[in-house]
Amino acid sequence: VPVASLTVTKLRWLRDAEPENAARVAAVALPHDWLSWRLAGHGPGADLTTLATDRSDASGTGYWSPFTGEYRRDLLERALGHDAVLPRVVGPADVAHRLQRTSGDLLVGPGAGDNAAAALGLGMSTGDVALSIGTSGVVSAISAQPIADASGMVTGFADATGQFLPLCATLNAARVLDAAARLLGVDHATLSDLALAAPAGADGLVLVPYLEGERTPNRPDATGALHGVRLTNTTPAHLARAAVEGMLCALADGLDAMRAQGVPVERVQLIGGGAQSEAVRRIAPTIFGLDVTVPEPGEYVADGAARQAAWVLAASQDATAQAPSWAASTSEVYSAAAEPRVREQYAAVRELTAKRPGA
Question: Is the pTM of this model over 0.90?
């Protein structure tokens, strides 16, 4: 069953909840498609067939196949109830729109989804995995082959280079650290110090961090749970450690789902606001069983957009041009011995959560 974030699911909701509005739909485009279309000078009354999109956003609709590179209009019709105009899908360095001006043509590139643009900005290649710890958590990887996961854990997106971007998303990431800091009445720096003061595994204290339900696994009505509470581990340091480990264990489940689909996991990069926590950086290798690279903070999505723009410009003059090789930002590598018992105790209680009131 397609997850709620896919366009096809939203169209089915529209058909079921507002059938009169669904019947009026002439074209379906994503926000970035519409913005590019408007930048190109189009607007109300314009030809809808001039809409354009890229592979990464098209692959998030649920009715474009990364395997064939074509739309599945049968799925669109099953969702919306009828066919509609869809944006043409342009290649990674193709011109989506061209504005003719006396000073020279203005080119509008294909654009990309945020995770695909970040991967381009980071210069990710096959075997690289990015773990973004923002309000939500994202585990994304570069793969040479398209992915189809019937369990729904991994969504098989395309990337912004012509390859593929399998992705897992969790609802609870940095907000888990926010909640722990608020509960303990400390700032994030102090929360980090506390977590590093407690032993690995927090002496059996385990936080299952489904504080806003969860998307991966699909448990929208779940709540968080604290397990293994004893007199000896009811300290601020133990709770801080359990919060960091619980958040990272949920992301590690995403890494496992990637591996289960045959995605190579050779290098892990931590990005996002949560990656600035020293405790997260030092504990992550113990959970993932891999060294962790932390690039300097940056606007990786914007970097990817700039890199794509340079590529489009170069390819407009030389069709064989490749994406420019820009110097990567400085980064720091964190290493530590794996602590498998942490994930083992998390796995033992992962399903033991209550439902939110009224669910």
Answer: yes
